[in-house]
Amino acid sequence: MILVTQGSRPSIGLEVFFKSFLSIEKLYQSHFKLFACKSDVEKTLSSLNIPYSIEKDSLKLSTRSINTNWVEDSKPTLNSLLSALSEISSTDTLVTLPSDKKSFQHGETNYSGYTQFFRYHFKKENLCMVFKGRENSIGLITDHIALKDVPSISSELIIKRAQTMLESSLYKSTQSILFSGLNPHCGEDGLIGSEDSVVTEALHELEKAYPSKKFIGPLPADTIWKHDSFSKSDSFTFFMYHDQGLGVFKTKNKLIGANITLGLDFLRMSVDHGTAPDIAYKNSADYSGCLFVLKEAIKREIGQ
Predict the structure, then answer these.
(1) Domains in the chain and their CATH numbers?
(2) Contact 35, 6 (CB under 8 A)
(3) Rounded distance, CA 218 to CA 197, Å?
(4) Chain centroid, CA 175 distance in Å
(5) Residue 75: how many CB atoms within 10 A of its CB?
(6) Angle of the 288-301 helix axis to the 13-21 helix axis, nearest 10
């Protein structure tokens, strides 16, 4: 199954999901189950002028139908997510609709987003944040951390993130793995800094552990996209931190990208954009990114 959680409010999440769901082939509709608050679903569908009827365990949309699990109106991000996690199996795919960071207060703990929440909830330290586009994929060595904390990256962390990617079924055919440096121009042989030595150390260890793979780097982050392997289907690129990688990825792919968490017992995917509360319930959101994510989830579901 493909379990979909609604994310936060106000948000374009449910809007882009319903538009995407109605755009996919009807034969795949039974693969989906939506975890959401009734009030948010009704408000969204009314704004989209989509005929609907709500049943106990399903939602009828025009000529389509989707299985549902209705959750309490309070804390929609966490309620829908925790409800889905109580049902999910290793063969399922979790699709989380966009949420803002303030939605991740669980008890007395505030999490910086889905990846950190999963890391603590499942007690899995080696989760890896990945972004998949039509042609290429990138990974981040760190999650959402401040720039001042980036120098704390170690060779051990780089190795762990690379291992998580290499051992995932999604990237089993990957042959070439590129790594950006930490400093501009990879430190100019120490003139700008020597921090990139941790990347070099990590690559030496990875080469010994995975002799059949090709590890390339460190490469300057501003020109790594020009490397011959960057856009090849059997390659993967690691960036050291969020803005270093996402600037390149989003310039190339725009909204067409899947945010993926590797290292869980199931595959988690999301759109590569935020909640856009300023246009929520205005029937003006671009749903092309969500449609891409749903199609990627379907491919995995049917084994393509």
Answers:
(1) 1-124+264-304 (3.40.718.10), 130-255 (3.40.718.10)
(2) yes
(3) 9
(4) 22
(5) 17
(6) 60
